[in-house]
Amino acid sequence: MRARQQYAEAARPATGAGPADIPQDELVLRHADLVKRIAYHLVSRMPPNVEVDDLIQAGMIGLLDAARHYTASKGANFETYAGIRIRGAMLDEVRKSDWTPRSVHRTVREMSEVVRRIENETGREARASDVAEALGISVEDYHRAIADAASCRLFSFDQMGSSDDDGPVAHARDHNPGPQDDLEEEDFRKALATAIEGLPEREKLVLSLYYDDELNLREIGAVLDVSESRVCQIHGQALVRLRARMEDWRQGR
Predict the structure, then answer these.
(1) How would you write 7-56 as a 3-class SS string?
(2) Where does CATH 1.10.1740.10 sit in the chain?
(3) In angstroms, what CA-CA distances link 72 with 3, 23, 66, 86, 175?
(4) pLDDT (tens digit, 9 = 90+) per residue, 195-248?
């Protein structure tokens, strides 16, 4: 029922929405395949209980919203703009289903806080052994914990800008974004890019191969000549470290 209401609201015509020379409904028809492409790409990275049809439904709402609010003066072409809104709508829908156990969120928060404290106190990168000792667990248990953290990877970047780990993160907002939202988004992306650049080389490489080149964990393992489980550990460690460093940014705003 909620999804149908959202769809109906998004489908209402808006004055001045969309490129001036293309009707809103035509924009949606032209880019319907984009919704499917993004949905099938995302579902391959999600738990089995996430249905591709649910992603497509949410993505169509995002596409309608993009058609209503797009203006060419912002610089991006419509497909680029719509892709961001479609993906954001899909991720928001999965967040609302709350498939990730709250215990995982709490563990990620605890690990990130320990990493932040160690790096602030020592002025160097926190090692796995440092974090495990501070948490009172074995290195093996720590590696298992960061593998769980990596299972939240689709949402981790968004959550780095939020102080609420246990609730939905409204990164791709349902309301009409204003100038303040754009400034906050730009500020967040700049801070995130700086934090990524400061990661250890192997962690930075894994993120680049995963998010930029869109390789899966097995393919990244082949590139690095390590096991898939080791790639998962490096990936999880990178996300925990980024979260710790973005917390410093969030508190300093």
Answers:
(1) HHHHHCCCCCCCCCCCCHHHHHHHCHHHHHHHHHHHHCCCCCCCCHHHHH
(2) 2-97
(3) 28, 14, 12, 18, 19
(4) 899 999 999 999 999 878 878 888 999 999 999 888 888 988 998 898 888 886
Report, as an integer, the average pLDDT of 133-146: 90
Is there a contact between 90 and 39 (Cβ–Cβ < 8 Å)?
yes
Query: Could you tell me where in the chain the CATH 1.20.140 domains are found?
Result: 102-251
**pLDDT tens string 154-164:** 444 545 545 44
Q: Residue 230: name the closest of 202, 204, 211 by CA.
A: 202
For the domain covering 102-251, report its CATH number: 1.20.140
| Cα dihedral 236, 241, 243, 246 sign | negative
| C-alpha to C-alpha distance for 68 and 114, rounded to whole angstroms | 44
Q: What's the CATH code, domain 2-97? A: 1.10.1740.10
Alpha-carbon torsion angle 59, 61, 63, 66, nearest 10: -130
